[in-house]
Amino acid sequence: MAASEENSALFPIFILTIMALPLVPYTIMKLCRAASRKTKSIHCQCSECTRSGKYRRSIFKRISNFSTCSNLTLVLLWVVMIILVYYIKHISQEIQIFEPFSILGLESGASDSEIKKAYRRLSIQYHPDKNPDPEAHKYFVEFISKAYQALTDPISRENYEKYGHPDGRQGFQMGIALPQFLLNFDGATGGILLLWIVGVCILLPLVIAVVYLSKSAKYTGNYVMHQTLSTYYYFMKPSLAPSKVMDVFIKAAEFMEIPVRRTDNEPLQKLFMLVRSELNLDLKNIKQEQAKFWKQHPSLVKTELLIQAQLTRESATLSPTLLGDFRRVLELSPRLLEELMKMAVIPRTSQGHGWLRPAIGVVELSQCIIQAVPLSAKKAAGGSPEGIAPFLQLPHFSETVIKKIARKKVRTFQDLSDMPLLGRAELLTQTAGFSSAEIQDVEMVLEMMPSITMEVTCETEGEEGIQEGDIVTVQAWVTLTRTNGLIGALPHAPYYPFLKEENFWFLLADAVSNNVWFSQKISFMDEAAAIAAASKAIEDMKEGSGASVKETSVAVREAVDKVKAGSRLVMGKLQAPAEGNYNLSCFCLCDSWIGCDKKINLKVKVMKRTRAGSRGGPVADEGPILEDGVEEEEEDEGVEYDDYESEYSEDDADEQKTNKKGAVANGKAYNKGIENRSSSESSGTDEE
């Protein structure tokens, strides 16, 4: 019985050990991550972003940031461990080791007379005839009497002095560190043990499996419903105009789950009147168009109106219930737009190409939602291919301010950003009436805006030239720079209520045929992941080409230095098409900033495959493998962006406008063409 009680006392120690093994290393890892975070601010410091409250470190926001599921679970486990430590310490004090001399209050080696004298003294104090207390009686019988017997019996005393126990040498004992009631199989405790085994070993894993499978069956790895992906795949069309992307975007199953209340009718009617000009309604038949709009599914109507409230910055007019739905729509938008982008560039044609026009429309919609700029503001106007949209993302800018500075021959966003600091400050002060604080806000945002450069090559590894059917390696170094020196940063987005990281999409496309040959997402936030991905890609490429270990290490070292300097490696493979000359375009599109996209041209010549399969030297009558052209600056950035609605239009006349832009020689494109400001954030080597 004593052994079982001792095993039962060891059960808390066993539980404490099992909990501490994973909990202590995990806690240390979390603390190290928190300590290694950069203290340098990577978000916009302008007054509008500060006023939005997104980055305010109030006590409530700190608590909300801390009170995540993993953090709360971690704290709860540590509380349980502290309770176990206290309990173990408490029971260890209760468990007393049998020490006869200590019980009798004597020192080791006391004589028989001293032992008898101490026994008589304690008997007067604890004997049942002298002390009626039950605890005194128990102590006298279990401790005092046994201690006296152990020391007065010669054999017992000799065993104690020699082996530390009155019964002599003790053998090795093994037990199970479980509570006593679980070790007693008699009566009702047997049923309790059976229920415990069934619950822990069968029911608990079954419940966890059911919950996990039900959730995984409904959502993808990006927490987007499978039904949403099916809907996006079905409604995505190659001729989808950018203005029509909204109609596909709002059909997500997540938006359909947002409740539609009767009390929302009146606020939605008022919101409709405020954003009606942005709904692409035919003004000649406005009544029929309005009736047609309200006949749609109520969830579609509500979602589109809430998104238009963000684009037109009319969220202040929403009721409290609609404001909650409004925040939910904006919270879901980034990941839904990312999946919509994947549905646009996913291979659809027989050659495995995606579609360029809807992909650009998805990025433009994402830019407008993050910056709270109407889609109509992107229509070309006043000599600017992107309209007034880039201006509206700057703090304190409005259409009135844009018209005023246009009279001073500052008609494009590039004109404003290229001005010297003093000249820009003078223009905004005298023309727009900006104060010094407002000018400082504008300068902060301009310093945050990224600038993108690209170096792109397309070649067949280990061979000269590209023949039809070859596996072509696309390699691009995308470099991001900012005036303030940051690489990874959060965009200026005071009207978007959540933290949003910059994401970029690299597209290698044929604008004439509307085909995307290759696409990849890029991130500039996680430098460690970018270094690991670039190192592995360069190492694999060098090993495949038969380079030596020294050459491989040098190439990897150069790639790491480039990543640390703000570059990201984009690498992938595609199959060479049929013989011919191809004028391709390389896009780097940002989903957060307007006017920061980059585009360069790339000329590739694909030769006819040789009869014997030899890959060396040119084929007769084919001329040089690749054209020996010279880089030319793109003369007109807006040829393909003349009109928001007609970009990559279905009309043949519009499709023929995609010629003569920035020639690039020998399948290599370097950044000498148009340079729009651009933003950063995506992992340099995530292949779709």
Q: Could you walk me through the main structural features you see in this protein, from its secondary elements to its overall organization?
A:
With 688 residues, the protein is an alpha+beta fold. Helix content is 48%, strand content 11%. It has helices at residues 2-36, 47-52, 59-66, 69-94, 100-104, 112-126, 134-152, 154-163, 180-183, 188-218, 226-235, 245-249, 253-256, 265-275, 286-294, 298-311, 320-345, 356-371, 389-392, 399-406, 413-418, 421-430, 436-448, 527-544, 549-564, 652-655, and strands spanning 354-355, 451-459, 466-467, 471-481, 504-510, 515-522, 567-575, 580-590, 598-607, 668-670, 686-687. The strands form two sheets. Strands 1, 3, 5, 6, 8, 9 and 11 form a seven-stranded mixed beta sheet that branches. Strand 8 (580-590) and strand 9 form a beta hairpin. Helix 11 packs across helix 17 (320-345), helix 16 (298-311) crosses helix 17 and helix 17 (320-345) runs antiparallel to helix 18 (356-371). It is elongated. The model is unreliable at 1-5, 614-666 and 672-688 (pLDDT under 50).
Question: What's this, in brief?
Answer:
The protein is α+β, with helices and mostly antiparallel strands and 688 residues long. It has helices spanning 2-36, 47-52, 59-66, 69-94, 100-104, 112-126, 134-152, 154-163, 180-183, 188-218, 226-235, 245-249, 253-256, 265-275, 286-294, 298-311, 320-345, 356-371, 389-392, 399-406, 413-418, 421-430, 436-448, 527-544, 549-564, 652-655, and strands spanning 354-355, 451-459, 466-467, 471-481, 504-510, 515-522, 567-575, 580-590, 598-607, 668-670, 686-687. The strands form 2 sheets. Strands 1, 3, 5, 6, 8, 9 and 11 form a 7-stranded mixed sheet that branches. A 4-stranded antiparallel sheet has the order 7-4-2-10.
